[in-house]
Specification:
Helix content of chain A: 25-40%
Low-confidence stretches of chain B: none
Distance between the termini of chain A: 35 Å
Order of helices and strands of chain A: EEEHEEHEHHHEHEHEEH
Structural class of chain B: mainly alpha
Radius of gyration of chain A: 17 Å
Oligomer: heterodimer
Chain lengths: 238, 241
């Protein structure tokens, strides 16, 4: 594997009850880039992300995280990758900060309160909310807490499944600004997924379009490329 | 140990954690109240306080033991917190055994904190003493409760539905109780869970029956170890969709 590649998928397939969810998915993510996986509902994005975290096993193919071949997803490879699912769940009877420190401790990470509050403010999350029970959170607040929890510890590659789903335009903008800041200042590689091309093109440098389990397009975005046009052409089968 | 430590941290915020311990202490309180009311009969029957406590604990403790398995596997899966934990650099194996460690610790806590409290009370009030018998009896009851925890882990791993684990574990307990009380097939009775409900008795006989104690440890240990291990092997093969 080339040195500047942090994540590489090779012919990853997933079948469930004889139905193909993913078919020969291959692409790579380079260190320091913001990679976007675009696809409609049922395209297979969330399954692919669950495969990357070892929650689901591929039916065929493999992928590399750094130099680690997966599956099996060993703790060493999982230490390089962090993130959140489209519906990351937390313990409702614990506060936001208790959930964050609890899950961070599973990565042997013990963040300071000030550090958590700092990142919360960058994500547009009110610090006082961190001290309220998660069961009282709104959908958008839950989304933000799931993004926040994935930052402790800061992994080499952050995989965020639909990071702006359930957020208002202001909240979505804040998340996009945060992604760009973290990528520029800390060099964190991002793997984002979304069904919305107009949101994705605001942050992603390279995009792969997943449609019905297959990669239909994979290229860098340039001013000459109209992502929305390409996306709709693929979705509508033109 | 990472998972077990996180479990302990989480347990401090859970009313269920305190609930189990409180019920166990309440049972101990009932026994003490009974002795207080009629100390003479206890004295004449030469029964110690901890001994009187172990039977109700062995009778009701399995409910708490089963609860552990349901909460730790089935509920975490249903709520989605299992997937959140597995986003971390943890293997399924490590996560599962961390939960088991905590359950065993909790069972020990549920048995030994009131047991030692009662032994202390007996020492103060009636001049009794701590003995090796207390430890042996307590361990047998802990193992008996843990057998139910192990069954609950096994069935909760096997069935995605949250009620599958507790219902089947209770079912196995009830089935073994019925077979035991049918009074037939004496050769198999020794292998039945219900047969060991009052196995702690052997440590309170004038002469400890070491042979019987060894068999109880072996049978209950096999249920506990076998249940947890089978559950782990099933859990290892599963996916979080």
């Amino acid at each position: 594997m080339e040195d500047d590649i942090i994540l590489q998928l090779k012919n990853v397939e997933k079948k469930a009850r004889k139905r193909a969810i993913l078919e020969e998915v291959s692409f790579e993510v380079r260190k320091g880039e913001i990679f976007g996986l675009l696809g409609g509902n049922g395209a297979g994005k969330s399954t692919l992300i669950r495969i990357l975290f070892g929650l689901v096993s591929p039916s065929a193919g493999c992928f590399y995280v750094g130099n680690y071949r997966c599956p099996p997803c060993l703790p060493e490879s999982k230490a390089l990758i962090g993130g959140c699912l489209d519906n990351t769940s937390f313990y409702g009877n614990l506060t936001g900060i208790e959930n964050i420190t609890l899950f961070a401790s599973l990565s042997s990470c013990y963040p300071r309160v000030k550090e958590i509050e700092f990142f919360a403010s960058l994500l547009g999350l009110d610090a006082s909310l961190l001290y309220k029970k998660v069961s009282t959170y709104s959908q958008g607040e839950r989304k933000k807490i799931s993004l926040l929890h994935s930052l402790f510890p800061l992994p080499r590659i952050l995989v965020w499944d639909e990071p702006w789903a359930g957020l208002d335009p202001q909240g979505a903008k804040k998340i996009q600004e945060f992604i760009l800041t973290l990528n520029t200042e800390e060099g964190v590689t991002f793997f984002l997924s979304s069904p919305l091309p107009q949101e994705m093109e605001k942050v992603a440098q390279r995009i792969a379009i997943l449609h019905r389990g297959k990669i239909k397009w994979n290229d860098y975005l340039t001013p000459q490329v109209s992502l929305e046009e390409i996306y709709w052409e693929i979705i509508e089968g033109k | 140990m990472k998972v077990a430590r996180a479990e302990i941290k989480k347990a401090f915020h859970s009313p269920r954690f305190y609930g189990g311990i409180l019920i166990s202490w309440a049972l101990a309180g009932l026994v003490v109240a009974q002795v207080w009311r009629d100390p003479l009969s206890f004295y004449l029957r030469k029964i110690t306080l901890p001994f009187s406590f172990l039977y109700p604990l062995a009778l009701f403790g399995p409910v708490g033991g089963i609860w552990g398995g349901t909460e730790n596997i089935a509920e975490e899966r249903m709520e989605g917190t299992l997937s959140t934990a597995l986003l971390r650099p943890l293997s399924r194996w490590e996560w599962y055994w961390g939960k088991v460690e905590f359950t065993l610790f909790y069972n020990l806590l549920m048995v030994f904190t009131p047991l030692l409290g009662m032994a202390l009370l007996e020492k103060i009030m009636w001049g009794g003493g701590f003995s090796f018998r207390l430890l042996g009896g307590g361990l047998v009851v802990t193992l008996y409760i843990s057998s139910f925890s192990a069954l609950s882990y096994l069935f909760s791993s096997l069935f995605y539905r949250p009620w599958g684990g507790p219902l089947l574990s209770l079912g196995v307990g009830a089935f073994s109780y019925i077979i035991e009380h049918l009074g037939e097939g004496e050769r198999i009775q020794i292998y039945l869970l219900a047969h060991h409900l009052s196995s702690f008795n052997v440590f309170f006989l004038p002469q400890i029956d070491w042979h019987q104690a060894f068999i109880s440890f072996l049978v209950l240990g096999s249920y506990t170890g076998g249940g947890f291990l089978l559950g782990a092997l099933i859990f290892l093969k599963q996916e979080e969709k």
